[in-house]
Every structure is written in C-alpha cells, then in structure tokens.
Specification:
GO terms for molecular function: SUMO-specific endopeptidase activity. The chain is mainly α and 150 residues long. The chain has seven helices and four strands. The radius of gyration is 19 Å and the shape is globular.
C-alpha cells in the first residue's frame, strides 16, 4: 500500500480491532486474514525514497490473460526513468503514480464542510496538491500521468 502502511501493518491493525470487539470476531471471516503476501523486491531499493514493493500477487498479473495492476505499471515506469535514461535526461521527466489519476478524478459523494464554495477544479486540486509539493513540474519537459482503468 502506498499510503504509509504496509500490508502487514494493516493486517495487524485489523486483528487488534477484532480482538477488542469479540462480537465482531464471530461475524468476520477468517479468509480476510490470509498470510501476509511475500515481498519479492522493492524498487528502487533503500535508501532511495518512494520504493515500490512488488509481491507475488503483483507478479501473477503478468500471466497470460490477466490485466496489469497499478503496482506493476508504476514499477515499470519508474524502472524506465531510473535505469534506461541517462541522469541528465531523467531529471527532465516526472512520472506520477497511477493512483494520482484515480485520486484526482474520484467522485465526491460528500463534500467536507467548508469546501462547498470551491469550484470542481479547486476541489480536485486540493486532493492532489501534496503530490507535487517537493517538485516543480514547470521545470520538467515531460510529465506522465498513467491511467489504469477497465
């Protein structure tokens, strides 16, 4: 997961919640808590920031007849920029995660209090403005926004 939690941490937190409420334990299926996914590789490797973790489940989407998932798309785009371009050319590119477009275009079923005066453009910008706080997009020659939709 790319929002500050690993799959293992999410499972641990869910199990804590289940243990704190015995009545809900009986209602929840044990299938929700399958063993943690096996991490195969993190790219780029530490100490680089923003590493993408690839699991066995992600790798299975590369089989014939399967759809590519967001993690594989993000990994390959990052790999192309980091490994296939020379350093001076790589700095001219910015590749967003495929989750950027999903976050930008998600439907708002309920607006937060105080945001009703914002235009749709301002509201969408407020959802993704932190994605570029450390980078100046105007310094880039190419900006890629991958879209992974069915």
């Amino acid at each position: 997961m790319s929002f500050g939690y690993t799959c293992d941490q999410v499972i641990i937190e869910l199990m804590k919640l289940m243990n704190s409420n015995e009545s809900s334990n009986k209602k929840m299926s044990k299938e929700l808590f399958s063993p943690p996914l096996c991490r195969l590789v993190v790219y780029p490797p530490p100490p680089a920031k923003g590493g993408i973790t690839i699991t066995e489940e992600d790798l299975s989407c590369l089989e014939e007849g399967e759809f590519l998932n967001d993690v594989i798309i993000d990994f390959y785009l990052r790999y192309l920029v980091c490994e296939e371009l020379e350093k001076e050319h790589a700095s001219k590119y910015h590749v967003f995660s495929s989750f950027f477009f999903k976050c930008l275009t998600q439907k708002d079923h309920s607006r937060l209090p105080g945001t009703t005066r914002l235009s749709i453009q301002e509201h969408r910008h407020s959802r993704v403005k932190t994605w570029t706080r450390m980078i100046n997009l105007f310094d880039k020659d190419f900006i890629f926004v991958p879209m992974n939709q069915i």
